Amino acid sequence: MKRHLLPYARAGQVIGLLGGSFDPAHEGHVHITHAALKRFGLDAVWWLVTPGNPLKSEGPAPLDKRLERARAVMDHPRVQITDIEAHTQTRYTAATLDALRDLYPDVTFVWLMGADNLAQFHKWQDWRGIMATTPVGVIARPGTRGAARNSVAAKTFAHAKLPARYSRLLGRHGVPSWCFINVPMSDASSTRIRNAGAWSREEP
Q1: CA separation (Å) from 30 to 11, 13, 33, 104?
Q2: How confident is the model at residue 55 (pLDDT cuts 50, 70, 90)?
Q3: Residue 156 CA to chain centroid, in angstroms?
Q4: Positive or negative: CA dihedral 30, 152, 94, 193
Q5: Cβ–Cβ contacts within 10 Å for residue 1, how many?
Q6: Long-range contacts of 50-53 (CB under 8 A, 24+ apart)
Q7: Rounded mean pLDDT of 8-17?
Q8: Taking a C-beta distance cutoff of 8 angstroms, is the pair 203, 62 a contact?
Q9: Contact 42, 14 (CB under 8 A)
Q10: How confident is the model over 82-101, as pLDDT tens digits?
């Protein structure tokens, strides 16, 4: 692995990780990133633009195309657009988090997700291991708050839920810990953008 191709992080930093296919990246991703930086007191956020999503049967657009789009829509000095999983050669979040902890042993990572992902989080590989070892920040998404709060993961780790008023302690509170925050919501959707014909999965 070429370490110089990976993002830089200082010891002691708390860095949020927003993973996904970003097929394509849109204003909703930008919105929850800004909210996460502020509400969880993060030093930085890294977007992990994945080579592919194991839970989706159809492949995304080429990685280079999705990275280019992500960098065009997300412009913030504390946000980095990365293809880390292409370098760690991990397909599942649990394995990616293990690899990152090995690469950055003095950094605390916070996994970020929309509430729609929490609702089906129990389908992820080693989801219990993720919750047990990584602080998780959950951001409200339109129409998913009830499903997220009543999800298998939320109920299983109810004892580890951090009240929203203490959200800035996430990442400094130990594990397991997770926090659900309500924010003004965007209804932007990658699926809607593709269905409208505004994004193609073909090579440019």
Answers
A1: 26, 21, 5, 25
A2: low
A3: 21
A4: negative
A5: 10
A6: 50/19, 50/20, 50/21, 50/85, 50/91, 51/83, 51/85, 51/86, 51/91, 52/21, 52/91, 53/20, 53/21
A7: 97
A8: yes
A9: yes
A10: 999 999 999 899 999 999 99
- Walk me through the domains of the chain, giving residue ranges and CATH numbers: 18-195 (3.40.50.620)
Chain centroid offset of residue 179 CA: 14
C-alpha count within 13 angstroms, C-beta hemisphere, residue 62: 6
pLDDT digits (tens, 9 = 90+) for 87-138: 999 989 999 999 999 999 999 999 999 998 999 999 999 999 999 999 999 9
Residue 82 has φ and ψ, to the nearest 5°, of -130, 160
List, in sequence order, the alpha helices (H) in the chain: 27-39, 63-73, 84-88, 93-103, 115-119, 127-133, 145-149, 152-156, 190-195
Measured between alpha carbons, how far is 148 from 140 in angstroms, rounded to an integer? 9
Looking up tokens 């159809």, which residue turns up? 58
